[in-house]
């Protein structure tokens, strides 16, 4: 189990060893924001921060009319991603974008269904 300090709260992640591990983990983050248009404009300016988080592929995201946002990132190094996610630089970026930090949820997709 890993405990990452994230602003005013901690994120607890449990990493499991799988018989057939997924080589590239995806991370889903959801949150409520003050204004989804303002959030999107700010979010798009953080490309350099995302690169330090070992994200090389495009980040997919969406917003809705209730100022809720969701994003999906594929970091190359999950531990580095989570370390920087918990950093002051990320907290500052979230504050600038109007993220309500107490609503942030992080999901690490570590399972799949073969089709």
Please give a quick description of this structure.
By secondary structure, the protein is an alpha+beta fold. Helices cover 28% and strands 34% of the residues.
Describe this structure in words.
This protein has 115 residues and is α+β, with helices and mostly antiparallel strands. It has one domain (2-12, 24-109): Alpha-Beta Plaits (2-Layer Sandwich). The chain contains four helices and six strands; from the N terminus they run βββααββααβ. It has helices spanning 36-43, 47-52, 78-85, 88-97, and strands spanning 2-6, 9-13, 26-33, 60-63, 68-73, 99-109. A four-stranded antiparallel beta sheet has the order 4-5-3-6. The chain has a two-stranded antiparallel ribbon with strand order 1-2. A hairpin with a 4-residue loop joins β4 (60-63) and β5 (68-73). α1 packs across α4 (88-97). The protein is globular. Mean pLDDT is 86; it is low at 5-20.
List the helices and strands and how they pair.
Blueprint: E1 2-6, E2 9-13, E3 26-33, H1 36-43, H2 47-52, E4 60-63, E5 68-73, H3 78-85, H4 88-97, E6 99-109
Antiparallel strand pairs: 1-2, 3-5, 3-6, 4-5
Distance between the termini: 30 Å
In total, the number of domains comes to 1
CATH topology name, in short, is Alpha-Beta Plaits
Can you tell me the CATH class? Alpha Beta
**Strand numbers in spatial order across the main sheet:** 4-5-3-6
Strand elements, count = 6
Query: Which shape, going by the Cα principal axes?
Result: globular
Q: Please trace the helix and strand order, writing H or E for each element.
A: EEEHHEEHHE
């Amino acid at each position: 189990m890993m405990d990452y300090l994230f602003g005013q709260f901690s994120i607890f992640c449990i990493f499991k060893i799988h018989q057939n591990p997924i080589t590239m983990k995806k991370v889903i983050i959801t949150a409520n924001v003050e204004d989804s248009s303002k959030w999107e404009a700010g979010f798009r300016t953080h490309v350099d921060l995302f690169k330090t988080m070992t994200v090389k592929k495009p980040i997919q995201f969406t917003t809705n009319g209730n100022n809720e946002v969701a994003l999906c990132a594929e970091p190359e190094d999950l531990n580095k991603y989570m370390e920087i996610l918990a950093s002051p630089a990320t907290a500052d970026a979230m504050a600038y974008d109007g993220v309500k930090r107490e609503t942030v949820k992080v999901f690490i997709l570590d399972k799949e269904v073969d089709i």
